[in-house]
Design brief:
By secondary structure, this protein is mainly β. It is built from 2 helices and 14 strands; from the N terminus they run αββββαββββββββββ. The protein has helices spanning 2-23, 93-96, and strands spanning 41-48, 51-52, 63-64, 67-74, 106-114, 118-120, 123-125, 128-135, 142-146, 173-178, 180-182, 188-199, 202-210, 212-220. A 6-stranded antiparallel sheet has the order 1-4-5-8-9-10, with no helix packed on it. Strands 6, 7, 11, 12, 13 and 14 form a 6-stranded antiparallel sheet that branches. A hairpin with a 2-residue loop joins strand 12 (188-199) and strand 13. The N and C termini lie far apart (105 Å).
């Protein structure tokens, strides 16, 4: 009798456990990590034309009434690749991806936004937004400033607006400026655009990737 009672008790416990397991929801799956862009977006920016305030009671000073100059672009990474620009007849083809010029980065067309007039080469660029491209030649790079309209999202049926450097048309060029080639002391893993040697009246726009770099001077119009 005792044995039958114990069997019955264990049976009830097992049944209750099975019912509880069936009613308890499974743990929620961990949310997927957000997907990171293979070529993250970046910004190179500087401010010009402002003035520093007098020190306040804490000795702090503020830069006031400055005007922004900035470049927005996507930043490809080497990911183990070498000789990224190639050589000879193939120079630049790997990064151009079939386009006639380089988008100076990846993904969307690289954009220059300036709140103050600047002079590049022999051309004064009024405040506004422009597209930047680079004509890659092993003998030297040429910076291109263009007012060709651009796409925010790729449309294969669009034949006028650029996506990256696809659909690039030289008739929209505002100015083409030779860049001075420089050799970085280290290998630059992620393509970088920066403002360098800045002074009150201007500076240089620099680009560098792997062991290749180029700079172009510009002036700020007061």
């Amino acid at each position: 009798m005792l044995r039958k009672s114990m069997v019955l008790v264990f049976g009830i416990i097992a049944s209750a456990g099975l019912a509880l397991a069936q009613q308890t929801p499974a743990p929620a799956a961990a949310p997927a990590a957000p997907r990171r862009a293979p070529s993250p977006s970046g910004t190179a920016a500087t401010q010009v034309g402002g003035t520093w305030s007098a020190p306040d009671k804490d000795g702090e000073r503020q830069y006031q009434n400055g005007k922004w100059i900035e470049v927005t672009y996507s930043r490809p990474i080497l990911k183990g690749r070498t000789n990224i620009f190639g050589s000879g007849a193939d120079y630049g083809k790997a990064v151009n991806g079939g386009a006639p010029v380089w988008r100076a980065g990846a993904n969307l067309t690289t954009r220059l936004k300036n709140e103050v007039p600047i002079v590049l080469g022999n051309k004064t660029l009024a405040p506004g937004e422009y597209s930047l491209f680079v004509d890659l030649k092993e003998s030297g790079w040429t910076l291109i400033v263009s007012n060709q309209p651009m796409q925010e999202k790729y449309d294969e049926n669009e034949k006028v607006k650029t996506f990256g450097a696809y659909n690039y048309d030289p008739k929209y060029d505002i100015v083409r400026v030779p860049m001075k080639m420089v050799a970085p002391q280290v290998s630059i893993d992620q393509f970088t655009i920066a403002f360098v040697d800045m002074a009150e009246k201007g500076g240089k726009l620099a680009m560098a990737w792997e062991k290749t770099g180029a700079v172009v001077p510009f002036a700020v119009v007061p």
